[in-house]
């Protein structure tokens, strides 16, 4: 594949200013787009240098530590739109993403890919963990926001849980329906461009799509299950605050 020069990279980012301008004019919150874009650039540069060091000296402790940090950060980002009891929502997200993400990762690594010693293969573990957690994080974000909105609107827990579940899985289901017809996912495209047989790339993409659906679905289920357990305590606290 051709190397992307710094000039070409800057040119690629230039239209982002147009998206920022539209957001700023319509919502007065376009700064979030610009801030997120700048953070993306800085984070990817830092991660790139860090991955070079990790890949050169693979260690199970370093790999596990990286995955642990990814879980915490994804949980923090996942509940950023929650307004009430954000600390409680963060703990739910850590448990949901950590459990669903790590179990899905272990299943794929040991059962599907059958790596001999995955502890010393961060080149495979970290990208897989990143795909799993980023997609599950988005699903948890949608679930948390929708659940809070529905509960604030007066819906009982089962109805709010149902609405949150359906909203959270829309991106995953849309992706399953569109793949191959509307879009060629990034991993499959990258493999084809690098010379891999398209049928081999298809197999890997099926694994990835199934992996993302499973991690997202289980993470949302765990998050909403914990939310259901916390409903009595939250309602009791709300009644106390109303009396005060």
3D structure, described in words:
With 244 residues, the protein is mostly helical. It folds into 2 domains: 57 residues; 186 residues, no CATH class. The protein is 82% helix and 0% strand. Helix 4 runs parallel beside helix 6 and helix 5 runs antiparallel to helix 6. The longest helix has 46 residues. The protein starts with 5 loop residues before the first helix and ends with a helix. The model has no long low-confidence stretch (mean pLDDT 84).
Which keywords apply here?
244 residues; mainly alpha
Describe the protein's topology.
Elements: H1 6-13, H2 16-27, H3 31-56, H4 60-78, H5 86-113, H6 122-152, H7 157-168, H8 170-178, H9 186-193, H10 198-243
Helix pairs in contact: 2-3, 4-5, 4-6, 5-6, 5-10, 6-7, 6-10, 7-10, 8-10, 9-10
Q: What is the domain total for the residues?
A: 2
Shape: globular
Tell me the radius of gyration. 20 Å
Query: What is the count of helical runs?
Result: 10
Overall SS class: mainly alpha
In short:
This protein has 244 residues and is mainly α. The protein has helices at residues 6-13, 16-27, 31-56, 60-78, 86-113, 122-152, 157-168, 170-178, 186-193, 198-243. It folds into two domains: 1-57; 58-243, no CATH class.
